[in-house]
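Case study 2.
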Amino acid sequence: MDAPLLIEPRDGYTRLVLNRPEKINALNGALLEGLIRALDEAAADPSCRALLITGTGRGFCAGQDLGEVPEGSSVVLDPGAIIERLYNPLVRRLRAIKLPVVCAVNGIAAGAGASLALACDIVLAARSAKFIQAFVRIGLVPDSGGTFFLPHLVGAARARALAMLGEPVGAEQAEAWGMIWRAVDDDALASEAERLTAHLATQPTQAIALIKRALDAAESNGLDAQLALERDLQCEAARTPDCAEGVRAFLEKRPARFTGRAR
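Prediction:
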């Protein structure tokens, strides 16, 4: 049996590939556990300075694998238990990891698959890709951060309609709405995602981690609190070797050679 998650080290970053193509990479326990472990391992690996998440086959992720529902059960996998044990920890790790995370959506991203994509830092999607809040179609509520990410990305009115109607959003529309960073031609998605992730792996890793902290805090902070946080994070960034290198490179009119080290 093929591994449900492929972990592919690259020069400076790691590629994580959802690998259940016969199920459109639907999420099951093994895949969710593998993703959580892979994120923890990447966070602990000093040679890994960025992550790329994508899927095999004709789609990115169809959401929860409903084939795991016990026959005759009226409860979908005891949703509270699996959400608390696997889905919520996965989303929390994705948002908290200090590394930049790129997601390449190579086809349909439905239900928790859409939430997984939107939890990443930078999302690229093939023009044929679609994002679907499919929960309502089977009488469920968006989870895995869906009700958090959607309003922040596309606004309250669109988020409500998408969640209640379950209508698909194409990649170009998702880009126009600010749901994702960019829609690209299908045959260019893989190479563009690799290029972007490789670039991020050469950038000041500590500064990117602090940028992520600042942007996450801005979702709940008032202006005064955010200004104070920016001051504190800027002081922290200024003490890193990459800041010193960036300033030297600027003054010497040469490209900076960042290492990503904290000190």
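The chain has two domains: 5-200, 205-251.
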